Amino acid sequence: MARTPTSRSSSGKAGGVTLAMVARRAGVSPQTVSNAINAPELLRPETLERVRAAIDAMGYRPHRAAQTLRTRSSRLIGYGVQSVDVDRTTPVMDRFLHALTHTAEEAGHRILLFAVPAGSRLLAPYQELVDDYSVDGFVLSDTDRGDRRQAWLAKHHIPFTAFGRMWSDKQIGDWVDVDGAAGIGRAVDHLAERGHRKVAFLGWPRGSGAGDDRAEGWKAALRRHGLPVRGLRAESVDDVDAARTVALRLLDTGADAIVCASDTLAMGAYRALRERGLTPGDDVAVTGFDDSPAAALVSPGLTTLAQPMDVIGAECVRLLLARIAEPDREPEHILLEPRLAVRESSAPPRPLM
Question: Which SUPFAM superfamilies would you find in this protein's record (predicted)?
Answer without folding.
Answer: lambda repressor-like DNA-binding domains, Periplasmic binding protein-like I
